């Protein structure tokens, strides 16, 4: 659905995006992660045909950037960092204006405006001037604007920025619903927990692409697979018993908790537990040791900076 090949953007001598080669599948939520100034928004603006690339190629929804720009704009929705709303107009007037630009007829406009204002909790405020809206309300109205024409591909730049926890959950649930409808979502966010929960794959980016994979596979590549076992009381005999297991690697312990690297946790964890029980351990808890996406991201960005 989105393909890039050596996509590059420079501003005079400054390289904002360098040789980006990427493939985003139809119906996928793809989270684009990187620090401020990494080139995420520049990439999104190139794919949305708001600015042209310096070099390289890209296609969106089967259309080529730089050749089929009008067709791409008709098939995508975009939420930019700045809401870009008309503050003297009310919510209905704002959305109606953009719906007309998308070429929606009167009946479709009426249906779509009500649908998205209700979903995003703005229907009761539809007649109020947008200038009096909070940042979060403007953000939700901008999301509604991006979806009025039911685009195949949706670009979202920090969609939950400025939203309170309740409103952010509404938007996250809404994004998941869009995926269930088969939309392709290109998500730029600093909210790593949000990316972890929503994204099928993530791309870690800092001018160039560092890594692309599922959040879980990135964890395994960096840290392997580990299991935590908490026992009631510590005894050094537990370490001796585990070291006798050929498959148990890099065994660590802190107080009464053991951390064991396993190549096949599903089949090996029961053997670990049985071994500890036979050694006299009272097992209180067994769980996968799961690094946060934040740790993955910081390690990848840090490694990139060193290289």
Record keyword descriptors for this entry.
307 residues, alpha/beta, Rossmann fold, 11 helices, 14 strands, 39% helix, elongated
Topology of this structure?
Layout lengths: L1 E10 L2 E11 L4 E5 L6 H8 L7 E6 L2 E2 L4 H7 E4 L11 H11 L4 H14 L15 H13 L5 E5 L7 H16 L3 E5 L3 H7 L2 E6 L1 E6 L1 H9 L2 E6 L5 H7 L5 E6 L2 E5 L3 H14 L4 E7 L3 H14 L1
Your description of this structure?
This protein is an alpha/beta fold and 307 residues long. The protein has two domains: 2-213, 3-Layer(aba) Sandwich (Rossmann fold); 224-291, Alpha-Beta Plaits, CATH 3.30.70. 39% of the residues lie in helices and 27% in strands. The protein contains eleven helices and 14 strands. It has helices spanning 40-47, 69-75, 91-101, 106-119, 135-147, 165-180, 192-198, 215-223, 237-243, 265-278, 293-306; strands at 2-11, 14-24, 29-33, 55-60, 63-64, 76-79, 153-157, 184-188, 201-206, 208-213, 226-231, 249-254, 257-261, 283-289. The strands form three sheets. It has a six-stranded mixed β-sheet, sandwiched between helices. A four-stranded antiparallel β-sheet has the order 2-1-4-5, covered by helices on one side. A four-stranded antiparallel β-sheet has the order 12-13-11-14, with helices on one face. Strand 1 (2-11) and strand 2 (14-24) form a beta hairpin. The protein is elongated and about 75 Å long.
């Amino acid at each position: 659905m989105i393909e890039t090949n050596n996509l590059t953007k420079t501003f005079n001598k400054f390289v904002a995006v360098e040789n980006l080669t990427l493939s985003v599948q139809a119906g996928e939520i793809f989270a684009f992660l990187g620090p401020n100034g990494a080139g995420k928004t520049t990439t999104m603006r190139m794919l949305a045909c708001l600015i042209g690339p310096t070099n390289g190629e890209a296609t969106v929804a089967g259309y080529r950037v730089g050749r089929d720009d009008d067709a791409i704009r008709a098939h995508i929705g975009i939420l930019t960092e700045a809401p870009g709303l008309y503050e003297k107009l009310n919510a209905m007037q704002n959305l109606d204006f953009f719906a007309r630009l998308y070429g929606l007829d009167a009946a479709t406009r009426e249906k779509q405006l009500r649908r998205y204002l209700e979903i995003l909790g703005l229907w009761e405020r539809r007649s109020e001037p947008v200038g009096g809206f909070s940042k979060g309300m403007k953000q939700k109205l901008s999301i509604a604007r991006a979806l009025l024409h039911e685009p195949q591909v949706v670009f979202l730049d920090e969609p939950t920025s400025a939203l309170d926890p309740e409103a952010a959950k509404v938007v996250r649930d809404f994004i998941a619903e869009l995926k269930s409808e088969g939309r392709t979502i290109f998500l730029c966010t600093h909210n790593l927990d949000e990316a972890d929960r929503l994204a099928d794959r993530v791309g870690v980016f800092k001018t160039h692409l560092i890594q692309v994979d599922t959040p879980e596979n990135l964890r395994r590549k960096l840290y392997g697979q580990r299991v935590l076992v908490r026992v009631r009381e510590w005894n050094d005999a537990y370490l001796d018993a585990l070291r006798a297991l050929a498959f148990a690697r890099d065994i660590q312990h802190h107080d009464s908790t053991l951390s064991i690297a396993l190549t096949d946790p599903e089949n090996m964890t029961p053997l670990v537990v049985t071994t500890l029980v036979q050694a006299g351990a009272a097992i209180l808890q067994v769980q996968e040791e799961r690094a946060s996406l934040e740790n993955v991201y910081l390690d990848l960005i840090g490694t990139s900076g060193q290289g």
